[in-house]
Amino acid sequence: MRIDTSGTCTNTACLAGARHGLALACVGLWLVLSAACDANCPPGSMKAGELCRVRRSVNDAAVEANDTTSSTSTQSVSKQPDENGEDKGQAGASQIGGAGGKGASTMTGSAAGSASLDSAGAAAEQPAAGEGEAGAGGASSQQSENAQAGGAGAGGAGHAGASGGGAAMPEPRCGDGVRNPGELCDGDCPKECPAAEGCIRSLLRGSAQTCDGECVPQEISETLPGDDCCPKGANAGMDSDCPKSCGDGIVDSNEKCEPKHAEKPCPSECDDGDPCTADMLSGEADKCTAQCVHRQITASASDQCCPAGANANTDPDCAAKCGNGVVEGDEKCDGKCPTSTSCRGSSGCMRQVLSGADCSAQCTTLEIKELQGGDGCCPSGANANTDSDCAAKCGNGVIEGNEKCDGKCPTSSSCRGSSGCVRQVLSGSECSAECTPMEIKELKAGDGCCPSGADATTDSDCTPKCGNGVIEGSEKCDGKCPTSASCTGGTGCMRQVLTGSGCSAECTPMEIKDLRAGDGCCPAGANMHTDSDCPAKCGNGVTEGTEKCDGKDCPTLASCEDGNPCTTDRLAGTAAGCDAVCVRELVGTGVKNACGGCTTLQYGYDADCEAKLDSCVNRGKYKCQGTDAVVCNAAVPVKSAEDCDHIDDDCDGKTDEGVLNECLGCGKPYYAPQAVPPGQPCAYYWTEDNAGDCATTGVGKCVGTDTVICDAPKPACAPP
Hints:
Elements: E1 2-3, E2 9-11, H1 12-16, H2 22-32, E3 45-47, H3 48-67, H4 94-97, H5 107-114, H6 120-125, H7 143-149, H8 157-163, E4 200-205, E5 214-219, E6 277-282, E7 291-296, E8 346-347, E9 350-355, E10 362-367, E11 418-419, E12 422-427, E13 434-439, E14 494-499, E15 506-511, H9 557-560, E16 567-572, E17 581-586, E18 608-613, E19 616-624, E20 630-632, E21 670-671, E22 681-688, E23 692-703, E24 707-710
Parallel strand pairs: 1-6, 21-24
Antiparallel strand pairs: 2-3, 4-5, 6-7, 8-9, 9-10, 11-12, 12-13, 14-15, 16-17, 18-19, 19-20, 22-23, 23-24
Helix pairs in contact: 3-5
């Protein structure tokens, strides 16, 4: 979208969204411009100066509307300046709130909250929600159409539309994270504005707390050296940011463009074709300061842009989008859509079922015909066996629920047969009729029945039964039979023990021979280690309890001697008292060292050691000096004159320095015929009669450490 900052003309499409986002940005620019538009603005445009006057009139109208709530005048706002050059717009100001036809009365309800510089002014210039369009100076000529469409004036978009015949807009809910109508931001409000570009800077207006925070572009008019801006009317003498040589075809460091430059000419307009950017021309072409500034639009308005955070409810340029959490267009839901489990409610077999999917999902009432247990419906033709929601019904030929029969039910004559003490008898009636087994309770010998409660002593048909509380036949007990815990008593290791089990259990006296802890018996041959019931006994040859020894394991004074010279050994206690022990007291460390003493040696015996003198080192071992000390046996090195022996004789860290020959050997080397010092050039000559002289060349070369030769090859003229 184009925003003209030159002070000429601006399309009213910018004005149309003045209540939201982008238009506030362009309004902020117009308010700081001092230049007037050309009087011949094309249709659909407005002078910047007029905008300032109209907006002040709107502000005055808001104040008047609070006092005069029933104004329905159709006068237009006066744009004639008085003798002081000020605007007189009070006459028709109330009609800015009544541009929607019947919405005139709404100015009193919401003008105070929306007729400020940031909200009231723009609505006076934008068309109403219907086809009628209200100008800055008066009400629309199509008031009835505006009323039907819910047109709103400056008095407030939602309330004015409602009183004019349209649907009321929802009240903004600042802080819910959703940008509602009337909000510039919600959860995405700017905390700081972009840095200045050229002569366009941004000012932060409003706040996140009131959901009206926005960055309003403003053209810089003051001269400030070093801010990269040459404001209109300034020159290089007034501001160092202004170019000094504009028009020479060369883009200097402080120039934004050059009229004659092929790659960077001065722009005359800045429309980038993107409806979601505010395109502004900053600077002047004749001063080489013209440049385009593009700012992203974030607020909602009817401007062909659907900014981030907007939706089809808050911006007519946005298409409905499933999944954005807002119910728009033909959507039935968005976000909290119904599911098959949330569609509930019923009346008989009429149920709420889920129809549609995603944002078209809704609950629809349908008749249930399917058999499905737990849905509360028993469809026609179903029964309790096929559908758990059906009740059992006697006479439908199907055995259901608690019915015993349905159709062919038993009778008293058909209930026959017996087994032991059980007889078949008829009980119940209709679908509850059944042959029920009945227990015989009379005591009658020889009838083959031992009724409940009888035993072998009261009915001969009964056999002895362990557990009936009656001792019968060969039973020893029945009911209160002895247990291993109840069989107590005895003397020493004679104990009452349990024999038999069940109704054959009885207590029998028996000598205990088994080792069993906790039975109170210490059998012969046992001790405290084998049976915890035995006490410790000194003299049994087993060390038990608190005894230190017993018998052969008791120490003597001779056995306490450990042969360690670093301990003093003595005998404490006696063998007769089973408390004899060896006591050892340490001498020194208590451990004999390598030299025979009882102290810790400073260095390990026979460990490596060395004696040094400058760079010379002699190595040796630590040896004993007495019984409690060690010394290094390495001799201290002695310096001597350097000799050719591959040894550092003078202890200076160097070997054989100054005594080696040119081949790094000892003594003067042997020079072969024609040899020269190593590395110097030499020649191999050969002379033959009538053949002239011939020769080859080479260099002196060491062979080993005591011989020097000439490495020239044998001449070709030499005989083989």
